[in-house]
Amino acid sequence: MILPIVAYGDPVLRKKCKEITPEYPKLKELIENMWETMYQAYGVGLAAPQVGVPIRLFIIDPTAFADDDSLEEEEKKVLSNLKKVFINPTIVSEEGEEWAFNEGCLSIPDVREDVFRKSTITIEYQDEDFNSHRETYDGIAARVIQHEYDHIEGILFTDKLSSLKKRLIKGKLANISKGKIEAEYRMRFPLMKKGR
Question: Which parts of the sequence bind Fe cation (predicted)?
Fold first, then answer.
């Protein structure tokens, strides 16, 4: 089932999310719905708070980046095989040079900005069967994971922008929270008047 994506301004996007156990109700169904929602919106990642559920869960599938001709063959190979579920993740380390990449977010449609992040991360997490993993990623894979990880920490990519950039997009963000935007997928807006 395709779920509405929560728009900028909703308090759920600012919550530090809670860990879950294998007993979490209807977890498999939630994960299936998140995949369906993400693909329908042409996303490469989706975190549970973006569908209104404040738990430490996100999914990624950065296959779309594997077509980028500017990438090395090795990185393309990694990206095309990286469809994953992350439950209760913890980023253990972020290392390397900070680099800029133009990021967007399904909860903040039509806003894209360059964001600086470290190039390499090590993350510990559980998969959908609650098996534990510790893995290291770099480049775009690390970036997609960092972006989704921020969501479960209550952080948005716009928080990482300079104060000047924040001022420049303030009006756009206000319009998104009021539902004054045309998105190509279902959204839930926090400040829309009832009956609109």
Answer: 105, 147, 151
Report the candidate in 104, 103, 102, 111 with the shortest Cα–Cα distance to residue 175.
Answer: 111
The full set of domains in the chain, from first to last, is 5-188 (3.90.45.10)
147 is in an annotated binding site: yes
Q: 151 among the known binding-site residues?
A: yes
Q: Model pTM?
A: 0.94
Which of the following is catalytic: 148, 153, 182, 184?
148
Q: What is the DSSP letter of 2?
A: P
- Phi and psi based region of residue 185 (left: phi greater than 0; alpha: psi -120 to 50; beta: remaining): beta
3-state DSSP assignment of residue 95: strand
pLDDT in tens, 138-167: 999 999 999 999 999 999 999 999 999 999
Catalytic residue flag (residue 148): yes
**CA separation for the pair 187, 40 (Å, rounded):** 12
User: Measuring CA to CA, which residue among 56, 35, 77 is closest to residue 123?
Assistant: 56
Cβ atoms of 102 and 113 within 8 Å: the answer is yes
Q: How far apart are CA 79 and CA 63, in angstroms?
A: 5
Residue among 179, 173, 172 at smallest CA distance from 194: 179
